[in-house]
Amino acid sequence: MSEPVPTNSPVAREYKEGFHDDIKTLNSVPKGLSHDVVDYMCDVKSEPDWMRRFRHESLDVFLKQEIPPWLPGLRDEFNYDEFTYYVSPVEKSSRNWEDVPIEIRRTYDKLGIAKEEQKLLGGLGAQIDSEMAYHNIQESLAQKGVIFLSCDDGLKQYPEIFREHFAKVIPPQDNKFAALNSAFWSGGSFVYVPKGVKCDIPLSVYFRINAEQFGQFERTLIIIEDDAFCHYVEGCSAPIYTTNSLHAAVVEIYVKERARCRYTTIQNWSTDVYNLVTKRSLISAHGVMEWVDGNLGSKRTVKYPSCYMIGEGAHGEVLSLASADKGMWQDAGAKMVFLAPNCTGRINSKSISGHGGRSSYRGLVQVAKNATNCRVQVNCDALILDPQSRSDTYPTMEVNGDLATVEHEATVSSVSDEQLFYLTSRGIKKEDAVSMIVNGFIEPIVKELPMEFAVEINRLIGMQMEGSVG
Q: Is pTM beyond 0.90 here?
């Protein structure tokens, strides 16, 4: 069996989240995907018959579906039977941090996550491998009717609301990795914000992979009722191994009439993780959906947060940042689908490539024939730090009506000798000059992040890009 990369190695020193802890496993399955694994999970979780049928049907869909031809490489890069699809270090999620097993608390203490609750978060969740170890919400929000549970507990405690919305935005047939998640989903968050309630304090969840050659498949379902608001923040990390791991999450969001949702992600995976995620929102009349999406680390990222404007006057935004270092391929972007009139949308995508890394923007803007007077603006900017790195842009515009305004603007730039000369001639060190240029490039995205995330993402990108120029 492969061993974790030693913590004193250069790569582990650069990625402080790359440590591995010995955490006792209570429930797990042998490697490989099968219907027997599905039955084991359903039995352990005591799930209803309809969910068991859903999982089995989803696995059949996964086995039949092919990977899209526009995603080269994934078909042959790994064997699905090399992964373990369910590993649980806890029996159930706890609302009391002191009730979480001590070795899991130590892991999150190292990550600094346990301290987040002291910063007046509205709620905090902590998932390790397949299950939520901790999930809690402030009493003031709970009294307003806000529900913030693990997705498994949402299924059990609110079965009618859950079943009405689950897998309706992203069915298993949507794509191969959504089908894989649908078969083996575990953990994630269930969020419900009642009509008119403003959940101004962020709800935060941190997803941690600890097991080796493991597949994490959290499922997040968020429902924001009319005139309500919620900000959901998630972070991710994993140990550094010499073998690969798989992360294939699904996020479904309902933004009802005049409601607003902001979903902020900072994914900082180790470079042995395949990060294959499907995220989609349905936005009703005059609702607003905002995705703030930061992608760092991973061996391969495939992720395109989506806004489907289904009601008149809906608005969708995707602010996306991808940083590709050595051995990484960030295939990220966004989708805007207009299905109603008088809707608006904006995509602002930034990517950085260094040390031979590769980044891609892949976007779709689709305007239905009846979606008149819709407007969307796409800005796609790439920064390449050395001759070995690469950036690609794959925009698709499908406008089926006559009354739509669609704008697309893209730039590709490098850190030029003139820029470096201008800054270094004023006494600025070369490394600091590069950092200033990169920070200026990503500032439009970073300024939208909560303060602690903004500071952290600047630090992480600075470490990744160190030594990229010259």
A: yes
